[in-house]
Amino acid sequence: MTDFTIYPAIDVREGRVVRLHKGDYDKETRYASEPLEVAQGYAEGGASWLHLVDLDAARAGGYTLIPLLREIVAETPLSVQTGGGVRSKQDVATLLEAGASRVVIGSLAIQEPETVAAWIAEFGADRITVALDARTGEDGSWVLPTAGWTSDSETDLAALLSHYSRSGLAHALCTDIGRDGTLSGPNLNLYTFLTRAVPDVAVQASGGTRHAADVRGVRKVGCAGVILGKALLEGRLSIDEAITEERV
Question: In the predicted model, is pLDDT for residue 198 greater than 70?
Answer without folding.
Answer: yes
